[in-house]
Amino acid sequence: MSAERPLYTHAQLSRMLNAKSIAIIGASARPGAFGERVLVNLASYTGNIYLVNARYETIGDRKCYPSVTALPESVDVAVIVTARDAVEGVMRECIAAKVGGVIIFASGYSETGKPEHAALQAQLAELAQGSGVPIIGPNCIGTVNYELQSRISFMPYSDMPIPAPGTAIGVISQSGALGFGLEQALQRGLPISHVLTSGNSVDVDMADYIMYLADEPAVGAIAMLFEGTAQPMRVMKACEYAFSKGIPVAVCKIAVGELGGAAAMSHTGSLAGSQAAYRTAFARAGAVLVDEYTDLMETAHFLSKAPKTPKGFGLAVLASSGGAAIMAADAAEAYGIPLPQARPETQAILEARIPEFGSTVNPVDVTAQVMNDPECIPACARAMAADDTYGAILIPAPYSSAAGVLRVPLWGQIARESGKPVIHVWISDWLQGPTSAELTAEPGVLVVRSMDRAMANLAAWHWLAAKRAAPARKLVTMAKPGAKAAAAKMLAAGTGTLTERQSKEIFALYDIPVVQEKLATSADEAASLALSMGLPSVLKIESPDLPHKTEAGVIRLNLKTEADVRAAYAEVMANAANVTPPPRVNGVLVQPMVPTGVEIMIGARVDPLFGPLIVVGLGGIFVELMKDT
């Protein structure tokens, strides 16, 4: 593991990411060139723009400068749009010009897998860290700041609505194309504050972006598309910081298999790492994992609009379709979302409004009769929102109609008055149908385009609230003085896999309780030990070559008599003799049979990225069957 670099703070990145002046180094008059596209994309930017290219005196009506050192001011950010071979020299000029930060588009660095290209990237890292001038990239697609209308990218221009403070999603992505794909959530009304891509992350990386966005006033949640990193604990520390600031981080981790991991290395030079380790670490850091890329923005938006603390964990479902009510019940059960029944006074209101062929049992089905009674749904929704049994109201919408827009203010009013979100589950296939945009824009209304996703988001919201309310973790030192050195000595003396007895000797150094045991080398000795410890007993072959004893038939449980012990000794020794190749056998461990309970496995491994990890799961024969560690 490489030495961990300190995290950038918001203050350290603010100059380049909230730039009031921009230099385009490699500006071009050729239509379609990156240097031309960046300039076009800055059409709405009101700060100072400087063009740098020694081959031009002007581009359009703008003056062109021969070098960044010739500019009339030290710019806040310089975007280098040159070929790779010119980048290092231009970077040195940027350092001399005291620019606030540099964005590099060029590819052909460590992602190629070639040592000479990795060396070029390492040189850029040294320049950044030695000069204090942050670098974004190389091999990135740039950055967008919606408040400043700053689109420092060659990706096609799109509308850039300015979000209200505290409501927007900050998008960060190692993949440029997928990051800008997430930006298209703007088309269904989701507010975005930034799109920040990192590419090869030679200097500024995902962790630094999280630190920056967590302190940005416009940001209500962060959506991160993540491949991997050589320093994952930096990302976890940044997620913990965002959690402490009340900013939810939704993470879609790609490169989860061997093929994906190899692709990540060739894409951005990222180390993908163990998915199990990442899932555990993100959860500990307070980040919400999202399995599907297509769900990421909706989850981030949900968490940005939902209250920080639910008024309750019970969910009220108010459906106008029996099928939709069933869908809600199925999904709620799958995600552990409680659907409690209403209080008697609420139940009375429901029974007075809902026809007898409907259902007043949660999930409530008001039926299509609501078309004849327009006040039915409002009355039922208000009653359920006022019931402190519930912390949220879910409205399934199986179809879209223009008339639905009339109810949007109602849902917003109920959310405001109750302090509980109204979750509008858009299960119509008319994804952008009438009312969808109005609902998305309404404060307190959370629009989700899948019942499964709605319940997953609810579960994430509940989990975040519970984590915030939980007492702070306490670090406990278990080792006695000298324990580590003694354990290291015992491990060094071992020859391969330690036996159970040897492992327990190490446990004893840390006061970890273990079952009593003795080693027997004859049936008579085994019987004598079993009687002295107390029956029933357990017999196990002790061999460094037989870690999986059940498969080899070298363990016997619940031996209730002396005769059972003698017979078991003969059986396990015979079975061990039949194993190929012949194992080393030290004897037979004799242990008392412990009372029935849940058998668990606790282990440890050293992850190449995360370091030491503790592995916990069901033990015994279930280790391989359940794979729940």
Structure, explained:
This protein has 629 residues and is an alpha/beta fold. It folds into 4 domains: 10-303, Rossmann fold; 314-421 and 429-443, Succinyl-CoA synthetase domains (Rossmann fold, 3-Layer(aba) Sandwich), CATH 3.40.50; 483-596, 2-Layer Sandwich (Dna Ligase, domain 1), CATH 3.30.1490; 597-629, no CATH class. The protein has 22 helices and 25 strands. The protein has a 7-stranded mixed beta sheet, sandwiched between helices. A 7-stranded mixed beta sheet has the order 9-8-11-10-12-13-14, sandwiched between helices. Strands 16-15-17-18-19 form a 5-stranded parallel beta sheet, sandwiched between helices. Helix 4 links the parallel strand 6 and strand 7. Helix 13 (376-386) runs parallel beside helix 14 (408-418). The model is unreliable at 265-272 (pLDDT under 50).
Please give the share of residues in helix: 25-40%
Number of alpha- plus pi-helical segments: 22
Structural class determined from secondary elements: alpha/beta
The share of residues in extended strands comes to 15-25%
Computed CA radius of gyration, to the nearest angstrom: 31 Å
Could you tell me the number of beta strands?
Answer: 25
Query: How does the overall form come out from the CA principal axes?
Result: flat
Assigned CATH superfamily of the largest domain? NAD(P)-binding Rossmann-like Domain
Largest sheet, described in full?
Answer: 7 strands, mixed
Determine and state the CATH class of the largest domain. Answer: Alpha Beta
Looking at the overall shape, the CATH architecture of the largest domain is 3-Layer(aba) Sandwich
- The neighbouring-strand order within the major sheet is 3-4-2-1-5-6-7
How many domains? The number is 4
Given as residue ranges, the uncertain stretches (5+ residues, pLDDT < 50) are: 265-272
